[in-house]
Amino acid sequence: MRRKILIGIIFTGLILRFIGLNQSFWLDEAAQVIESERVFAQQIDLASDFHPPLYHLLLHFWLKIGNGEIFSRLPEVIMGVVSIFLVYEITRLLKFSNFSAQLTAFLLAVNPFHIYYSQEVRPYMLFSFLSLLATRFFLTGNLIALAIVVSLLVYTNYFAFFLLLAFPAASLLSGYKKDLNKVLQSFFLAFLIFLPWLPSLMRQLEIGFGNGLPGWKSVVSVSPYKAIPLILAKFIFGKASIDNNFIYALVLMPSIIAFAASGFLAFKSKKYPVLFMLFFVPLISALTVSFFLPVLAPQRMIFLLPFFLMIIAGSADIWKKWGIFLSLAVVITSLFGLMLYYLNARFQREDWRSSVQYLKEDSYSIKSLVAFAFPEAFAPFIWYNRGILESRGYAQDFRVGQSDIRRLSLDLSGRNTVYYYSYLDNLTDPKNWIQRKINENGFQLKSIRDFPGVGFVYKYEKD
């Protein structure tokens, strides 16, 4: 019976992760696929992507089989589903009851944040999966396997180092102290393996924090003062949100209370001390570093989501019926966030596929031009366009300048149709120079199309 329940939970997680799997690639996914399709020798040339190379290498070989949206996302779906089983195993190793272990697995199976990143062609799910695998080997004392997985972790995501701080801390607790030296030896070996990549990391930091795109840091990271409530909100409600902040807070409040109450009960009863180390040590470490390096974002903390759910489900072992009630509050809130994600296009991925298809169907002239307020066309446009429509970027230094406008004027000569994507132009062209120059060259605005996530596509024609 226990096995049937667990299989049912895993199957539920699988079905939920296939819904909406055919969404358009958005900016980061398209850039990831384009980079991973490069020749093998270029897969470690990742100066502009703040990640180590393991995921790029794995995806490089996967894309040799197929590269459609569904096929490209299948590895993430598989890792997301296997994670449900790993969470069940880990909770049992942490001395949870079978009921609480199944409850934790169910919470992860229906969690909208985990589902979203189980459908994302980016390294986040690989990182979360390997984090669970490392935790399992740590708890079972399989330190050789732990060393191997830790080596993979540090080549997947730099936030792995925050997780690694938790294992020695947990080793100092009762039952794991004897393994501390071996754990440290495993980590030292992983660090030696990581050393050859260190110059590339320094290069990524140099480029990332010297990025000329104004306001970009606020896009890719959040203020450390806002980080904790935002991370908890995403862990519970997923990528969806509610425009009215007061109503949004009311919806989230029962789940926040459930987490706080569960944590307090576990701390007071001195249960699950290792679990507390696994969740709070990486969280506090990442938060501290974010005051100096603006790299904190909810998706980078997704490896902590399973431990977050374990703390909540663990209340069922401590507080019985009231603990189940706390977990039920989280389930209801998560299902509400999941429903919004499935049904509302603005919470899904940017619909570049439809925007490019619109241009292909609408553009009947070889004299048309697609313009962007960016150094070049954005990666999803390049992916879906496949060189059919001529495109140009007019923000060579991530800010539209006079030289860009002069080049635009030259490119407009002899054209009869111009399509302009407003995507990110609030950062790169706040004075709206590109559209003003298009108007000055005799083009009249004929239509505006709005695509979810992408924003407005303006069509200009010469009479």
TrEMBL record:
Transmembrane segments: 129-152, 158-176, 183-202, 246-267, 274-295, 301-319, 324-344
Topological type in the membrane: Multi-pass membrane protein
Chief subcellular location: membrane
InterPro entries referenced in this protein's UniProt entry, alphabetically: LipidA_mod_glycosyltrf_83
GO cellular component: plasma membrane
Molecular functions per Gene Ontology: pentosyltransferase activity
Gene Ontology terms: biological process: lipopolysaccharide biosynthetic process
Protein name per UniProt: Glycosyltransferase RgtA/B/C/D-like domain-containing protein
This protein's UniProt keywords: Cell membrane, Glycosyltransferase, Membrane, Transferase, Transmembrane, Transmembrane helix
Superkingdom of this protein's organism: Bacteria
Subcellular localization: Cell membrane
